Amino acid sequence: MKYVLWSGGFDSTYVVMKLLWEGHEVQPIYLSSIDARRSETTELNTMKSITDFIRDNYPEYGPHIKDFIKMGV
Known about the structure:
By secondary structure, the chain is of the alpha/beta class. Helices cover 41% and strands 21% of the residues. The protein has helices at residues 10-21, 40-57, and strands spanning 2-5, 26-32, 69-72. It has a three-stranded parallel sheet, with helices on one face. Helix 1 (10-21) links the parallel strand 1 (2-5) and strand 2 (26-32). The protein is globular, with a radius of gyration of 12 Å. It starts with a strand and ends with a strand. The mean pLDDT is 92.
C-alpha cells in the first residue's frame, strides 16, 4: 500500500496514476483546512471525479485505488 497526499491537482494526480500503473494499491489522503484558499470543495469534487473516472474506464486499476481519506489539520 502506498499513501499519497492528493489535492486533485496535476502533480499529485500523476503520482497516484504512476503508482497504479506500477501495480501498487494507493490510499489517497486529503489534508483539510491547511490554507485559506477556500478551494477544498473544488479539490474534493475533482478527486471524486478522477477516482470515478479511473474506476469506470480502467477496471484493471479501479480496485487498487482506495476512497480518499480526509484528514483535518
